[in-house]
Design goal:
Length: 137
């Protein structure tokens, strides 16, 4: 054999992921072609997510509502701590407005059942009793 030319050696292995028997031409081969492509795709996706996150954190984040600097490692990604509660309240109100009929229907069904009526009455009595005791001189 001339220098610099070698014959590729092939060997049969079991894929580390799916266990399928496959032929590889490298001593480092551990996976079948399908599993290798899927694994490679996942690694690229994870890498790109990590890089994008690092870039976003490096430039810092601004609150979408007031524009204040959130910092590099925020708990919430969109709003500063001051705006977070008010935005959550607005979102809950908006959700209730959109789904008001569902809430009312559920309430009618719930309180129309006898066992729930009694449970509600007991709770109301306990609350009234506690309030009455707290207001005694």
């Amino acid at each position: 054999m001339p220098v610099g030319i070698y014959k590729r050696q092939k060997r049969v292995i079991n894929c580390k992921i799916c266990g399928k028997e496959t032929t590889v031409y490298s001593s480092a081969g551990k996976f079948c072609k399908e599993c290798y492509e899927a694994k490679s795709k996942k690694e690229h996706r994870d890498y790109n997510r990590r890089v994008k996150r690092e870039k976003r954190l490096a430039r810092g984040l601004k609150c979408e509502k007031c524009g204040a600097d959130i910092g590099k490692f925020p708990k919430a990604k969109k709003y500063c701590p001051d705006c977070r509660e008010s935005v959550a309240l607005e979102q809950r109100r908006e959700h209730y407005k959109k789904n008001r009929e569902k809430y009312l229907e559920y309430s009618r069904e719930y309180y129309s059942k006898p066992e729930n009526k009694e449970k509600h009455r007991q709770h109301a009595r306990a609350h009234y009793e506690k309030k009455r005791i707290d207001n005694l001189p």
